[in-house]
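Changelog-adjacent note: as of this version, every example in the card shows the full chain rather than a window. The one below runs 194 residues end to end.
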Amino acid sequence: MRIIAGSKRGMRLNSPKGDVSRPIVNRVKESLYSVLYSYDLPAGAVVADVFSGVGSLGLEALSRGAEFVTFVEQDPKIESVLKKNIEKAGFIKQSKVVRANAYKVGAVMDFDKGQYDLVFVDPPYPTTKDVGEDSRLGKLFDVLVQQVKDSGIAVVRTNEKSELLASYGIFDVVERRKWGTMNIAILKKGCDEQ
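Full-length structure tokens:
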């Protein structure tokens, strides 16, 4: 697993031993970023990598010009590897690591940076078998609505057997992609009228 483009192109990422993480393969990551370019992302964006694992998606965003990334990861062993990857890439000042259950805290805003332009949501597949409004994933969007800018983008990765609803509150699916055994849904936040 490596960073595939930008300022840190070719840098290999450390991975934890065993099967504790589920990294996105490089060819899928490249395809995903090709889609994100059509939304003028990630250059200059404030990004969150939720359920970040070793930070593959967020570090790729920084390498491609994102301004700042917040990484949210619950597992302390994986968090340790994530911090090593951030240090290895030289992105300590452009990132923050939060050890927490992302289903409860969402993207955890950095108040100096404000709301997010882009949020990657990559939860463990078993937790996305239910994707209804009242599911853990559905309730996560209730948290993200306060953390994502109007017209901001959320990218959600699930197993191929899980297909997201057309909308979650004011987040609407604007694109769906299937790569291998995964589904990727891109959701855009509408205007919050509260």
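Structural remarks: The first strand starts at residue 46 and ends at 50.
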